[in-house]
Hints:
2 domains
Amino acid sequence: MRSNFITKIKATQKLAKEKNVHNWYNCVLQSIMIIFITSSVLSVYTITYVFEVDETTPINEIPVLGLALPFILTMAISYVFLEKLIIIHISLYEKIHKIIFNHWQKFDMWYFRRYRKHSPLTENLSKLQAKQAKLSKKTRKIIIGLLIASLILFNVFIRIPYILESIEDKQLPVIDQETEQEQQQPKENEYQINIRGAG
Length: 199
């Protein structure tokens, strides 16, 4: 079962090479992110309506199955749909590459007819390809890992203000209730003292 799943994913890498799609890792990463977001949304609604859990429920009162549900759904959806999503991404990138290549070729022909030399886009691309060819496999893997880590950190950095706002929104009503109670108590005492003095 597991070996069959791995062979299917490896087959998508061969398909990407056949269709001249070099960013196979990007296709896999995007497919996994889509599956994880989908499973997270589904698990939130499932935990809310099945286990009757809301935002005020503490974590220790949530069932273990509810906490593990996002990972279970991610694994289940990945086993069924990951290969198909990767193939969809490969076909989309193939079409995008064809559109870009056709427009690039037209621009090169127009630039060569006018200036009798290669366009700066082609020259810069050839320089980048030459530099990339000199890199070893280890350095390429390190660069890919750093890019993935930077994307994850960038996503977390964007979400930090929203997380802080949600925490402040949850804390503010508690503070307001305490201050209202403190303000009401002295007023009641003063009112009682005045009545006794009048009597």
